[in-house]
Design brief:
About 75% of the residues lie in helices and about 0% in strands. By secondary structure, the chain is mainly alpha-helical.
Length: about 475
């Protein structure tokens, strides 16, 4: 009896065989999560001190744009040399970008640091998926994905508070310069275990780096930047960068993602498509919730941010639920149910535009949406690894992340364009409006962001049955 128990323990994600690797890769995700929550809090102060508010948006888009390129490179690098080189290089690049931004004395250098950080982040996130596919048996992969989701819980709650305190007491630079210290733990714990389990390429005859795909990734990234720029500037002349951006982005996306992705062909193409729909709709809505609560309902920035905190907790719960072995045959239905929950949550948010409705409805709705996203995102990651042969794990993981990031960029940009066109650009959060508890803004501009996102999420629920190949 004791021997059976010990064997089971050794076979779990925290058993003797996998403990060091699990703790290491979870530490990497923890580092990325803390950076995402902490740096976002310090960013406005950094831009103000560097006299670069005009480049504020590019501090975000610079990260996402270079990460799109890095994801494609990382996928090929992993298939050619195994996940260890891109993972180590990505962590180093991520830390270097933070140091560049933290020591910058101009906004242009700050944006450069964010771009370098995006290169590192793109390499890391794809390599992590390949590590899971190479090092863990199929029965343990749902648990690893649940651990990834759980790694976001604490940073989502304490990250803004810690970052705000450090920014006020020590200065915004220390937020950027302190995070690289977190790199030491993942490297020390994970790399020895990774060398033993997943360092070698899956196929000794793995192909060389495909220069054509890398140039397509460059076109995709440049096209995304041009479309973002055009969406922020609604003058007629912005049609030019918008057209050029679309000409670059659309063909590149069609070639970089699996054939049939945008037609929801059964199996891998639908898995890739669903990741973009799920992540893009949720983030597009989430980006505008704090602004709505501050400008339309008079909440403080802190309370508006805390309205989203429950979603992080329930996201981890949803990821934990999908990892139960008895639910494995129902994975497609879990994704469909999660998308319905996400759509319902997003559709419920604009109810708070009515002052007769308590703002707490947003916090409740986002708990429901977070639960749905926990079911969806982790399940899609498991399905991707299930339908990917080892030799294609890197390329397919890269396609999943490209779909995620590209949908985030495009749907947030589209939401911002509609928001501005309907007068939302005149809405600005301020202490005065918060104290007054009223706003003369444009509620319709917020509704025009949330309702289409909810409709697209619901469309994702209708597509979900196509996740599994026939037979």
């Amino acid at each position: 009896m004791r021997g059976a128990r010990e064997a089971a323990d050794e076979g779990g994600v925290l058993g003797r065989e996998y403990r060091a690797l699990t703790l290491g890769i979870v530490s990497v995700v923890l580092m990325i999560a803390f950076e995402a929550t902490a740096v976002g809090t310090a960013m406005p102060i950094a831009a103000r001190d560097l006299h670069g508010l005009g480049l504020y948006a590019f501090a975000f888009s610079g990260y996402f744009t270079t990460s799109l390129l890095a994801m494609v490179v990382s996928g090929q690098w992993c298939d050619r040399s195994g996940p260890l080189p891109p993972l180590a290089g990505g962590i180093a690049g991520f830390a270097a970008g933070l140091v560049i931004s933290g020591t910058a004395h101009s906004m242009s250098l700050f944006v450069l640091g964010r771009a370098v950080q995006g290169l590192g982040g793109g390499l890391v996130i794809v390599a992590l998926y390949v590590v899971v596919g190479r090092a863990y048996p199929e029965r343990l992969r749902p648990s690893v994905m649940a651990a990834f989701a759980a790694s976001w819980v604490v940073p989502s709650i304490v990250g803004p508070l810690v970052s705000g305190t450090v920014t006020e007491q020590l200065g915004w630079r220390w937020v950027f310069l302190a995070i690289p210290v977190l790199v030491v733990l993942p490297l020390a714990v994970m790399l020895p275990a990774l060398r033993r389990t997943a360092h070698a390429p899956a196929d000794t005859g793995a192909q060389r780096m495909d220069g054509r795909r890398i140039w397509l990734a460059v076109a995709l990234a440049v096209g995304a930047v041009l479309l973002q720029y055009a969406g922020q500037d609604l003058r007629p002349v912005s049609v030019v960068p918008a057209v050029v951006g679309a000409v670059l982005l659309v063909p590149a996306a069609l070639r970089l993602l699996p054939a049939g992705t945008f037609r929801a062909v059964r199996g891998l193409p639908t898995v890739i498509l669903m990741r973009g729909i799920a992540a893009g709709t949720f983030l597009a809505a989430e980006s505008f919730i704090p602004l709505m609560l501050v400008t339309q309902r008079g909440l403080s920035a802190t309370l508006a941010g805390l309205s989203l905190a429950g979603g992080g907790l329930t996201w981890a719960l949803g990821s934990y639920v999908q990892a139960r072995p008895r639910l494995e045959p129902l994975r497609g239905r879990l994704v469909q149910a999660g998308m319905v929950m996400s759509a319902a949550a997003i559709a419920a948010v604009p109810l708070a535009l009515d002052h007769a409705v308590p703002p707490a409805v947003v916090a409740v709705a986002w708990c429901v949406g977070g639960l749905g996203m926990g079911l969806v995102i982790s399940s899609l990651s498991v399905l991707l690894l299930k339908v990917s042969p080892p030799s294609d794990a890197g390329a397919n993981s890269a396609a999943l992340q490209v779909s995620d990031s590209l949908a985030n960029v495009l749907l947030v940009a589209a939401a911002g364009t509609v928001f501005t066109a309907l007068g939302g650009g005149s809405v600005a959060p301020s202490a005065v409006s918060a104290a007054a508890g009223a706003s003369h803004g444009h509620p319709a501009a917020f509704a025009a962001v949330f309702l289409p996102a909810a409709a697209l999420a619901l469309l994702g629920a209708l597509v979900a049955p196509r996740l599994h190949p026939r037979g």
